[in-house]
Amino acid sequence: MTQAAALDFDHVELLIGTVENAADANAKAVRNTVLSPRFYTTDFDAMDKLNIEPVRAEWDIMMKEYEGDNNHDHFQRDAAFADEVRELMPQLSPEMRQEFLDFLISSLTSEFSGCILYNEVRKHVKNPDIKQLMTFMARDESRHAGFINQSLRDFDLGIDLGQLKRTKSYTFFKPKFIFYATYLSEKIGYARYITIYRQLEKHPDKRFHPIFRWFERWCNDEFRHGESFALIMRANPDLLRGVNLLWIRFFILAVYATMYVRDHTRPLLHEAMGFESTEYDYEVFRITSDIARQVFPVEVDIDHPAFRAGMTRLVELSIANAKAKERGGVIGLLGRATTAVQAAFTFGRLYLLPVKKNTLPADIRMQPTW
User: CB 3.0–4.6 Å: which of 18, 102, 235, 270 could bond 275 by disulfide?
Assistant: First the structure.
């Protein structure tokens, strides 16, 4: 096990906090940190001007897929769900319970973030293509968030989604940043879920909660959402040229680094599924990088030794920052400032590493075959 993955629970608790009741769960969902999912808003007028005519044939096929709604009956708990919860949950250690709750809350917040963004775009744009797409994607993300919330209610920790919408702060992103970040979020979400599903398909004895049985069809929703943003970007090729290549590089690295640090606060969760956090993350990075070649002309070199060393360093700095925060006072404040500077420097070094260049394929659409 790598140094970054070998965290004891004291360090994990510093990073993820402890959830004991519904108030804690709701406070965690509302809180904005570097690692927590955020809510976004954007320039709706600019979204209205998008042109998808260069990819009209692929777009119309995709819209028919959305209309077909092959997951309309998927997010229903079957009779065995409650039985599995009653049987398996008491077997979790207190530490494992906290990691699983953190996973559920952050996953719900991420799904609901997509629902809020897509619904807001739907309400504010007149462009019929974009309005139709956002309606379908908001529908899907609402189902996902609601399904996770049902599992939190099994712990008496349900999130008040209406209150979350009203109280969580929003970050403004230009449309192009929304496209880069959300495309990556949807595709990496697919890669995460399918990697977990395939692992537990091979090792059903390690499936400690029934929600994982839903992951295969669920992550295909995420995959299709990513396809939608891929078509938008390929239809507007200026988004993939010039200085925008620097932004693409930034968002790939930011999404990967955030996932890596957050996942290394959950070593017991991955261990329970038969993973080691570092190995799991690099498998997810590999799948995401393979997929993203459909639209991004550049990709980060995840196998570069300096990339791997930098990711490990970011985990170490995240732990040090959390310990300084807990310490408090002037010494704690200085410690947090120091780790923040060191983290920015580490991220900068990662950003300056050589990248791989891709030739974009003629056929944009992909199938979720992983």
Answer: 270
Domains and CATH numbers, the chain: 9-304 (1.10.620.20)
pTM value is 0.91
**Could you give the CA distance from residue 137 to residue 190 in angstroms, rounded to a whole number?**
15
Instruction: Give average pLDDT by consecutive 10-residue segment, the chain, 370 residues.
Output: 44 64 84 74 93 96 94 89 88 90 92 93 95 96 94 91 88 93 94 96 94 93 95 96 97 96 90 94 97 96 97 94 89 93 96 95 89
Instruction: With beta carbons less than 8 A apart as the criterion, state whether 207 and 91 touch.
Output: no
The b-or-e profile of 27-49 (16+ CB within 10 A means b, else e) is: ebbbeeeebbbbbbebebeebee
- Phi/psi for 356 (5° steps) reads -90, 145
- Strands 39-41, 170-172: parallel, antiparallel or unpaired by DSSP? parallel
Q: Residue 299: what are its φ and ψ, rounded to 5°? A: -145, 150
Backbone φ, ψ for residue 41 (5° rounding): -130, 170
Q: Answer for the pair 117, 182: CB distance below 8 angstroms, yes or no.
A: yes
β-bridge pairing 298-300 and 170-172 = unpaired
